[in-house]
Amino acid sequence: MTEGCYRKEISAGLEVEIVLKKDQRTGILTKGTVKDILTNSSYHPHGIKVRLVDGQVGRVRKVNSSD
């Protein structure tokens, strides 16, 4: 799974699904819109950490494209 692992794939305003810290064991995904990118490196194996518009913080597992 490489989706959401590269910072260049994520931008503010993008619809994504993240896994919150409390949901890492279960893998429950939370949908939302990216407000801030918190990971500074260009790649992270567990997903880029972001803050959603509603304030929740987690790692991107899926990018929802609007094709």
Structure in words:
The structure is a single chain. The protein has 67 residues and is an all-beta fold. The protein has a single domain, classed as Roll (SH3 type barrels), CATH 2.30.30. It is built from no helices and 4 strands. The protein has strands spanning 15-20, 29-37, 49-52, 57-63. The chain starts with 14 loop residues before the first strand and ends with a strand.
Key features of this structure:
mainly beta; DUF2196; globular; 4-stranded antiparallel beta barrel; SH3 type barrels
CATH topology: the name is: SH3 type barrels
* Gyration radius, rounded: 10 Å
Q: Largest sheet, described in full? A: 4 strands, antiparallel, barrel
What is the N-to-C succession of helices and strands? EEEE
Counting helices, strands and paired strands, the structural category is mainly beta
Percent helix, as a range, is under 10%
What is the domain total for the residues?
Answer: 1
Strand order of the largest sheet: 1-2-3-4
User: How many E-type strands?
Assistant: 4
Average of pLDDT = 93
Low-confidence stretches: none
Strand content: 35-45%
Coarse shape: globular
CATH architecture classification: Roll
Separation of the first and last Cα atoms:
21 Å
User: What's the total helix number?
Assistant: 0
Text of the CATH class: Mainly Beta
